[in-house]
Fold this sequence. Notes:
alpha+beta; Porin; eight-stranded antiparallel beta barrel; disordered N terminus
Amino acid sequence: xxxxxxxxxxxxxxxxxxxxxxxxxxxxxxxxxxxxxxxxxxxxxxxxxxxxxxxxxxxxxxxxxxxxxxxxxxxxxxxxxxxxxxxxxxxxxxxxxxxxxxxxxxxxxxxxxxxxxxxxxxxxxxxxxxxxxxxxxxxxxxxxxxxxxxxxxxxxxxxxxxxxxxxxxxxxxxxxxxxxxxxxxxxxxxxxxxxxxxxxxxxxxxxxxxxxxxxxxxxxxxxxxxxxxxxxxx
Length: 234
């Protein structure tokens, strides 16, 4: 048995558990650099939204363009959720359809691998999100070039499901809505997308009947973007 396992076993036997804040500090430190980068991106996005887009207006993107993305990131519960759920890694698949150059419809399926902190031994908890939203893309710099950039802001709604892997209980589901900001840096048909989402849900407690209540969490995602065709001039 390793030293770490022995210490953990002694803590369980003695009934001592380190404070929840201590258990999450490692994850928060690991995501500090990501938070700083995304914070800077958010500030840049606000500047871009207020900047003139005369250069972007001279070029447009094909209205039939499709985008497929596979992203990874982190799920961070906030408010009341912090005492119920653990910070978690998240994976997602996204498909976007450009209705027009400045407007896109985006569907997302996400999977966060968390833990239920309200139950003994904190059993593993799968959190599935399925939603559809609309994205405003006010500018698209370099649409006719090899390298391009497009900021965006979006709103959407869908469903959230909490499924325990180790407890024989039914999954808990709820409606969910989100607001998002981010940006895409494209190189030819491939690009990198950074996105921050703030989710609001109304869900019942994970254990017992309980009364539905407002819940909140934040998701940070980064991933690759694949286009069926390159942006082109009209």
